[in-house]
Amino acid sequence: MPWTATNTEGRPAPAALAVDAVVLRVADRRLEVLALRTEDGRRALPGGLLGPRDDPAEAVRRVLAEKTGLDGIYLEQLAAFADPDRDPRGWIPSIAHLALVPADTTPRDPAARWVTARGRHRWAHDHRDMLALAVDRVEGKLWWSNVAVGLLPAAFTLSQARAVYEGVADTGYDGATFARDLKATGLVEPTGERRSDGPGRPAALYRFVTAAPAWGAGRRKRVSPA
Protein backbone atom coordinates (compact mmCIF):
# COMPACT_ATOMS: atom_id res chain seq x y z
CA MET A 1 0.00 0.00 0.00
CA PRO A 2 1.49 3.41 -0.94
CA TRP A 3 1.84 6.12 1.69
CA THR A 4 2.33 3.54 4.44
CA ALA A 5 5.27 3.49 6.83
CA THR A 6 6.67 0.90 9.23
CA ASN A 7 6.93 1.50 12.98
CA THR A 8 9.80 0.45 15.27
CA GLU A 9 8.23 -2.99 15.73
CA GLY A 10 8.09 -3.59 12.00
CA ARG A 11 4.33 -3.13 11.74
CA PRO A 12 2.52 -0.99 9.16
CA ALA A 13 1.80 2.54 10.32
CA PRO A 14 0.33 5.70 8.80
CA ALA A 15 2.80 7.66 6.72
CA ALA A 16 0.88 10.93 6.75
CA LEU A 17 -1.83 12.81 8.63
CA ALA A 18 -4.61 14.93 7.15
CA VAL A 19 -7.20 17.42 8.35
CA ASP A 20 -10.72 17.90 7.01
CA ALA A 21 -13.32 20.54 7.85
CA VAL A 22 -17.09 20.26 7.94
CA VAL A 23 -18.14 23.88 7.37
CA LEU A 24 -21.81 24.49 8.20
CA ARG A 25 -24.14 27.44 7.88
CA VAL A 26 -27.91 27.99 8.05
CA ALA A 27 -29.48 29.82 5.10
CA ASP A 28 -33.25 30.20 4.70
CA ARG A 29 -33.78 27.81 7.62
CA ARG A 30 -31.75 25.10 5.84
CA LEU A 31 -28.55 23.59 7.20
CA GLU A 32 -25.88 23.64 4.49
CA VAL A 33 -22.34 22.31 4.18
CA LEU A 34 -19.48 23.68 2.10
CA ALA A 35 -18.38 21.12 -0.50
CA LEU A 36 -15.81 20.82 -3.25
CA ARG A 37 -15.92 18.51 -6.29
CA THR A 38 -13.54 15.61 -6.92
CA GLU A 39 -12.44 14.61 -10.41
CA ASP A 40 -15.00 11.81 -10.47
CA GLY A 41 -17.85 14.14 -9.54
CA ARG A 42 -18.21 13.31 -5.87
CA ARG A 43 -18.53 15.89 -3.11
CA ALA A 44 -15.56 16.43 -0.81
CA LEU A 45 -14.90 18.43 2.33
CA PRO A 46 -12.11 21.02 2.37
CA GLY A 47 -8.94 19.45 3.70
CA GLY A 48 -5.27 18.74 3.22
CA LEU A 49 -2.16 17.02 4.54
CA LEU A 50 -0.25 18.21 7.59
CA GLY A 51 3.37 19.23 7.41
CA PRO A 52 5.97 17.85 9.85
CA ARG A 53 5.57 20.80 12.25
CA ASP A 54 1.89 21.57 11.73
CA ASP A 55 -0.58 21.83 14.58
CA PRO A 56 -3.89 20.26 13.41
CA ALA A 57 -6.05 23.22 14.47
CA GLU A 58 -3.75 25.74 12.81
CA ALA A 59 -3.47 23.52 9.74
CA VAL A 60 -7.22 23.31 9.27
CA ARG A 61 -7.50 27.09 9.65
CA ARG A 62 -4.86 27.48 6.96
CA VAL A 63 -6.63 25.00 4.68
CA LEU A 64 -9.91 26.87 5.08
CA ALA A 65 -8.24 30.20 4.38
CA GLU A 66 -6.41 28.87 1.31
CA LYS A 67 -9.21 26.84 -0.25
CA THR A 68 -12.27 28.83 0.75
CA GLY A 69 -11.10 32.26 1.90
CA LEU A 70 -12.67 31.68 5.31
CA ASP A 71 -10.79 32.95 8.35
CA GLY A 72 -11.47 33.75 12.00
CA ILE A 73 -14.42 31.36 12.29
CA TYR A 74 -15.85 29.06 14.96
CA LEU A 75 -13.83 25.84 14.96
CA GLU A 76 -13.73 22.73 17.13
CA GLN A 77 -12.23 19.28 16.70
CA LEU A 78 -14.68 16.49 15.90
CA ALA A 79 -12.81 13.18 15.83
CA ALA A 80 -10.01 11.23 14.20
CA PHE A 81 -10.92 9.01 11.23
CA ALA A 82 -8.24 6.36 10.83
CA ASP A 83 -9.59 3.43 8.82
CA PRO A 84 -6.59 2.11 6.82
CA ASP A 85 -8.74 2.03 3.67
CA ARG A 86 -10.28 5.49 4.02
CA ASP A 87 -7.94 7.09 1.45
CA PRO A 88 -6.94 5.45 -1.87
CA ARG A 89 -3.44 6.95 -1.55
CA GLY A 90 -2.72 4.81 1.51
CA TRP A 91 -3.12 4.81 5.27
CA ILE A 92 -3.72 8.49 5.97
CA PRO A 93 -5.78 9.22 9.09
CA SER A 94 -7.63 12.52 9.18
CA ILE A 95 -8.54 14.77 12.10
CA ALA A 96 -11.98 16.14 11.28
CA HIS A 97 -13.04 19.58 12.50
CA LEU A 98 -16.37 21.38 12.72
CA ALA A 99 -16.49 24.96 11.44
CA LEU A 100 -19.54 27.22 11.74
CA VAL A 101 -20.12 30.40 9.74
CA PRO A 102 -22.95 32.96 9.35
CA ALA A 103 -25.42 32.70 6.47
CA ASP A 104 -23.84 35.50 4.42
CA THR A 105 -20.47 33.71 4.16
CA THR A 106 -19.35 33.38 0.54
CA PRO A 107 -16.16 31.37 -0.17
CA ARG A 108 -13.64 32.83 -2.59
CA ASP A 109 -12.86 29.45 -4.14
CA PRO A 110 -15.07 29.15 -7.27
CA ALA A 111 -15.03 25.36 -6.89
CA ALA A 112 -16.69 25.51 -3.46
CA ARG A 113 -20.47 25.26 -3.23
CA TRP A 114 -23.03 25.31 -0.45
CA VAL A 115 -25.19 22.16 -0.57
CA THR A 116 -27.83 20.90 1.81
CA ALA A 117 -26.26 19.04 4.72
CA ARG A 118 -29.11 16.55 4.80
CA GLY A 119 -29.14 15.82 1.07
CA ARG A 120 -28.30 12.58 -0.74
CA HIS A 121 -24.90 13.46 -2.15
CA ARG A 122 -22.09 11.16 -3.25
CA TRP A 123 -19.20 11.88 -0.88
CA ALA A 124 -15.53 11.06 -1.26
CA HIS A 125 -13.68 8.89 1.27
CA ASP A 126 -15.46 8.89 4.65
CA HIS A 127 -16.66 12.47 4.37
CA ARG A 128 -20.29 11.39 4.69
CA ASP A 129 -19.47 10.02 8.16
CA MET A 130 -17.68 13.24 9.09
CA LEU A 131 -20.68 15.29 8.00
CA ALA A 132 -23.11 13.09 9.94
CA LEU A 133 -21.00 13.44 13.08
CA ALA A 134 -20.80 17.22 12.65
CA VAL A 135 -24.57 17.60 12.23
CA ASP A 136 -25.16 15.39 15.27
CA ARG A 137 -22.66 17.46 17.28
CA VAL A 138 -24.33 20.78 16.49
CA GLU A 139 -27.83 19.40 17.07
CA GLY A 140 -26.77 17.93 20.40
CA LYS A 141 -25.16 21.14 21.65
CA LEU A 142 -27.68 23.57 20.19
CA TRP A 143 -29.85 24.12 23.27
CA TRP A 144 -27.22 23.30 25.88
CA SER A 145 -24.43 25.63 24.81
CA ASN A 146 -23.64 28.76 22.82
CA VAL A 147 -22.56 26.76 19.75
CA ALA A 148 -24.89 28.89 17.59
CA VAL A 149 -22.52 31.82 18.14
CA GLY A 150 -20.73 30.59 15.02
CA LEU A 151 -23.89 30.62 12.91
CA LEU A 152 -25.30 34.02 13.84
CA PRO A 153 -23.96 37.55 13.34
CA ALA A 154 -22.52 39.38 16.34
CA ALA A 155 -25.88 41.12 16.93
CA PHE A 156 -29.11 39.40 15.94
CA THR A 157 -32.86 39.53 16.41
CA LEU A 158 -34.76 36.71 18.05
CA SER A 159 -36.34 36.00 14.66
CA GLN A 160 -32.88 35.49 13.17
CA ALA A 161 -31.92 33.21 16.03
CA ARG A 162 -35.12 31.21 15.65
CA ALA A 163 -34.44 30.66 11.93
CA VAL A 164 -30.95 29.34 12.71
CA TYR A 165 -32.13 27.06 15.50
CA GLU A 166 -34.91 25.70 13.29
CA GLY A 167 -32.43 25.01 10.49
CA VAL A 168 -30.09 23.10 12.78
CA ALA A 169 -32.83 21.16 14.56
CA ASP A 170 -34.78 20.59 11.33
CA THR A 171 -38.02 21.55 13.05
CA GLY A 172 -40.21 24.57 13.79
CA TYR A 173 -40.59 26.47 17.07
CA ASP A 174 -43.36 28.64 18.40
CA GLY A 175 -42.02 32.19 18.33
CA ALA A 176 -43.01 33.25 21.85
CA THR A 177 -41.85 29.99 23.43
CA PHE A 178 -38.56 30.12 21.56
CA ALA A 179 -37.86 33.69 22.69
CA ARG A 180 -38.66 32.88 26.31
CA ASP A 181 -36.54 29.76 26.46
CA LEU A 182 -33.56 31.20 24.60
CA LYS A 183 -33.42 34.07 27.08
CA ALA A 184 -33.75 31.58 29.95
CA THR A 185 -30.53 29.83 28.94
CA GLY A 186 -28.54 32.79 30.22
CA LEU A 187 -26.39 32.54 27.10
CA VAL A 188 -27.72 35.64 25.32
CA GLU A 189 -28.25 39.22 26.41
CA PRO A 190 -29.84 42.33 24.85
CA THR A 191 -27.48 44.82 23.24
CA GLY A 192 -29.77 47.74 24.06
CA GLU A 193 -30.23 48.49 20.36
CA ARG A 194 -33.04 47.83 17.90
CA ARG A 195 -33.21 47.15 14.18
CA SER A 196 -36.02 47.31 11.67
CA ASP A 197 -36.20 44.41 9.22
CA GLY A 198 -39.51 45.45 7.67
CA PRO A 199 -42.89 46.88 8.63
CA GLY A 200 -43.72 47.07 12.31
CA ARG A 201 -41.82 48.08 15.40
CA PRO A 202 -38.02 47.64 15.27
CA ALA A 203 -36.90 44.40 16.91
CA ALA A 204 -34.53 44.25 19.87
CA LEU A 205 -31.01 43.02 19.14
CA TYR A 206 -29.29 40.32 21.16
CA ARG A 207 -25.80 38.87 21.36
CA PHE A 208 -24.18 35.90 23.02
CA VAL A 209 -22.69 36.76 26.40
CA THR A 210 -19.38 35.26 25.29
CA ALA A 211 -17.94 33.81 22.11
CA ALA A 212 -15.90 31.34 24.17
CA PRO A 213 -17.50 27.91 24.70
CA ALA A 214 -20.20 28.20 27.37
CA TRP A 215 -22.99 26.02 28.73
CA GLY A 216 -26.45 26.99 29.92
CA ALA A 217 -28.19 23.65 30.40
CA GLY A 218 -29.30 24.30 33.96
CA ARG A 219 -31.18 27.49 33.11
CA ARG A 220 -33.70 26.50 30.48
CA LYS A 221 -36.65 24.31 29.63
CA ARG A 222 -36.49 22.23 26.47
CA VAL A 223 -38.28 24.02 23.66
CA SER A 224 -41.06 22.00 22.06
CA PRO A 225 -41.52 22.07 18.28
CA ALA A 226 -44.31 24.32 17.03
UniProtKB/TrEMBL annotation:
NrtR DNA-binding winged helix domain: from which residue to which, for each copy? 150-208
Q: Which residues form the Nudix hydrolase domain?
A: 18-129
Which classification does the entry list for the species? Bacteria, Bacillati, Actinomycetota, Thermoleophilia, Solirubrobacterales
Q: Which InterPro entries match?
A: NUDIX_hydrolase-like_dom_sf (IPR015797), NUDIX_hydrolase_dom (IPR000086), WH-like_DNA-bd_sf (IPR036388), WH_DNA-bd_sf (IPR036390), WHD_NrtR (IPR054105)
Which molecular function term from Gene Ontology is one that the record holds? hydrolase activity
> Protein name, please?
NUDIX hydrolase
UniProt xrefs under CDD domains: NUDIX_NadM_like
- What Gene3D superfamilies does UniProt report for this protein, alphabetically? Nucleoside Triphosphate Pyrophosphohydrolase, Winged helix-like DNA-binding domain superfamily/Winged helix DNA-binding domain
Q: Which Pfam families match?
A: NUDIX (PF00293), WHD_NrtR (PF21906)
| Record keywords, A-Z | Hydrolase
Q: Which SUPFAM superfamilies match?
A: Nudix, Winged helix' DNA-binding domain
